[in-house]
Amino acid sequence: MTQPPYTPPVDFLDLLLDAVCVVDPEGRFVYVSAASEQIFGYRPDEMMGRIIFDFVHPDDIDLTRNSAEHVMATGSIRQVENRYIRKDGSIVHIMWTARWLTGDKLRIGVARDITQRRHNEAVQAALYAISEASHTAANLDDLHGQLHSIVNALGIPAFHDSNSQSESDRNHWQLIATQISEALSRRQLFDRLKYVAQYDPLTGLPNRELLSDRIRTTLARARRQQTSFALLFIDLNGFKRVNDSLGHAAGDQLLQHVAHRLTQSLRESDTAARLGGDEFVILVERISERHRAQDVADKLHNAFDKPFLVDGIELDIVPSIGVAVYPYDGEDEFCLLKHADNAMYTAKGRERCR
Predict the structure, then answer these.
(1) Are the beta carbons of 43 and 67 closer than 8 angstroms?
(2) Strand 76-85 relative to strand 91-101: parallel, antiparallel, unpaired?
(3) Model pTM?
(4) For 113-143, how does the pLDDT look when each residue is reduced to its tens digit (9 = 90+)?
(5) What gap in Å lies between CA 283 and CA 231, rounded to an integer?
(6) In this predicted model, what pLDDT tens digit does every residue of 215-253 receive, in sequence order?
(7) What is residue 252's DSSP assignment?
(8) DSSP string spanning 342-353?
(9) Nearest CA-CA partner of 276 in 326, 305, 233, 336
């Protein structure tokens, strides 16, 4: 048997900004105040007689059903939130206060639109997350990915959906766009400063600071795993003559060519670094036997067999290479570098005698 429409005792409910809704035990609207059109987008007559779940956001149906059962079991409920789908397809966030009318067997609820508040909170959380990501992202690509996820998680009308945006929504997107721009600028600046601090500007190879950091990391791993690694100290014989005869610009080109040839001769796990001038150090990770370090040195020697072409001039450059192997030639960074440096000078002496 269909229950007759419920008529409230007074008619001033239509003056309220919050919507007053009355629902029967089956979940059908039997009364909706005039504010429903402002909040839900539907006129009261479009909602009455229909099931509330026709309007509830699909993801909130279980929550809404549980809340209704709680009201009927306990008599009332306060400040419970869920989402409804407005007539235009947009999402509205509702905060409910409801009571069960035992004698009438009806639920009466007051619906307050808190969509703007939820949007404000989401934007504030996004702004904080963007700022945090700019400091914690591993690199610029990682930051782009995090920013994409943050923006996608925002529950406000999309920035390109101008028809469903309010003035507040447009202001929110402007804030977010500004914050993203600043985050990207900060990260780009940080990456540039980090690059300058860790890489040689001429050759693009790691500098002394980054090499030292990698040696310490490799040393800690070698101690823990009881493995070996090698350091190769390289000096270019005759480099000063190139600078004196052809000029520093030619010398710089030669260093760039040498850096490229060194990196092409190494595994990806190894590191070629420039200490300064014509001095380079190679960090060779995880060598199985001590003589393998000399095999790498021989390979690098062979890489210099072909002349370097600088300003149309072929330059025959011979490197002097000194080798130090952990733990045989030293057990810390200083001792290993000193041993490799001394071995390099010994090799240079042999080159002069040839």
Answers:
(1) no
(2) antiparallel
(3) 0.62
(4) 999 898 888 889 999 999 999 888 888 889 9
(5) 5
(6) 999 999 999 999 999 999 999 998 989 988 899 999 999
(7) H
(8) HHHHHHHHHHHH
(9) 233
